[in-house]
């Protein structure tokens, strides 16, 4: 009789030879033993595949899937999902690692609370500054007597959407045929917003037990460095979410949540992207708002923050929404960088 698999841990792998063993060791050493570890090698050109095979020989729970050609992060995750059989899916990036009892705690809470979606706290490990440690502990907004929150338009934006550390009931993903969009950045944002409306309950493990490695050359560092293409990918993802919700007939219910997602994304783009890209993003957002009649001040402003409403009104008027204080902060930062040289 085949033992039940409580969690399928999905690990996409591409050229992470220096980090992969630490990642896999942290998963194989979990106190929750009823796991399968589905690793997809995305045609790595270093020694990553050899490391995967070594772990598979040592631990039969490790499944190694070889992609026929390099297809990118989303395709690897989708391929891993197609091989998964666990009750829940848990996503791990192959240069990160977990504290030893994280999966046991998350599964215990999932079963006790009948939760469909779970999130956990995390901390950053900086290769360039190993002594620095930033922790992000998600606020557990659930009433103590319940321990969970309903999955609603009001809670969708309050849960961390990053793929690393995301746990989701697999049957929901399969029932609705949800996969990561290929060929774009911000794919985890789409996945979160596509899955969440079909979940009933979400709970949070407020421990920084997932460790994100911050290193040069990673995908997330590309977005933070101001990649124009990745910044524009955010709008592509927003359009995909819009299409998904329209086809599912839930856009009107989640319309304000979509507006908040737009504002959040554009504000992040402004931190990193060149001015020309920011202007292009503003133009596209304005077109989207007008064509779909998404922003209705009389209905929406009570659910939006003052700043969110201000930005949306500016975009509807074809303006950037940036005031003098924004440019003053930019100039001060530029001046500080010059002084440090």
TrEMBL record:
Top-level taxon of origin: Bacteria
Gene Ontology MF annotations: hexosyltransferase activity
Annotated InterPro entries: Glyco_trans_2-like, Nucleotide-diphossugar_trans
UniProt KW keywords: Glycosyltransferase, Transferase
Annotated Glycosyltransferase 2-like domain residues: 8-175
SUPFAM superfamilies: Nucleotide-diphospho-sugar transferases
Keyword Cell cycle: no
Name under which the protein is recorded: Glycosyl transferase family 2
Organismal lineage: Bacteria, Pseudomonadati, Verrucomicrobiota, Verrucomicrobiia, Verrucomicrobiales
């Amino acid at each position: 009789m085949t033992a039940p698999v409580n969690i399928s841990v999905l690990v996409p792998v591409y050229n992470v030879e220096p980090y992969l063993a630490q990642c896999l060791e942290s998963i194989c050493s979990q106190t929750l033993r009823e796991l399968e570890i589905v690793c997809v090698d995305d045609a790595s050109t270093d020694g990553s595949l050899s490391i995967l095979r070594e772990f598979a020989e040592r631990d039969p729970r490790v499944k190694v899937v070889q992609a026929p050609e390099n297809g990118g992060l989303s395709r690897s995750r989708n391929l891993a999902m197609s091989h998964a059989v666990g009750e829940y899916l848990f996503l791990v990036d192959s240069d990160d690692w977990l504290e030893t009892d994280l999966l046991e705690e998350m599964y215990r809470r999932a079963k006790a609370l009948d939760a469909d979606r779970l999130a956990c706290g995390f901390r950053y490990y900086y290769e360039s500054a190993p002594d620095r440690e930033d922790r992000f502990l998600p606020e557990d907004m659930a009433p103590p007597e319940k321990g969970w929150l309903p999955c609603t338009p009001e809670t969708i934006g309050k849960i961390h959407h990053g793929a690393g550390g995301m746990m989701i009931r697999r049957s929901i993903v399969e029932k609705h045929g949800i996969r990561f969009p290929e060929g774009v950045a911000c794919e985890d944002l789409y996945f979160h917003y596509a899955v969440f409306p079909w979940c009933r309950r979400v709970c949070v493990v407020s421990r920084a037990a997932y460790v994100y490695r911050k290193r040069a050359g990673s995908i997330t560092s590309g977005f933070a460095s101001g990649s124009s293409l990745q910044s524009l990918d955010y709008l592509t993802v927003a359009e995909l979410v819009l299409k998904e919700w329209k086809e599912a007939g839930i856009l009107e219910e989640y319309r304000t949540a979509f507006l908040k997602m737009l504002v959040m994304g554009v504000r992040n783009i402004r931190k990193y992207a060149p001015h020309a890209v920011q202007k292009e993003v503003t133009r596209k957002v304005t077109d989207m708002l007008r064509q779909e009649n998404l922003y209705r001040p009389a209905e929406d402003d009570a659910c939006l923050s003052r700043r969110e409403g201000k930005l949306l009104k500016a975009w509807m008027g074809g303006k950037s929404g940036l005031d003098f204080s924004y440019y003053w902060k930019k100039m001060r930062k530029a001046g500080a960088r010059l002084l440090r040289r």
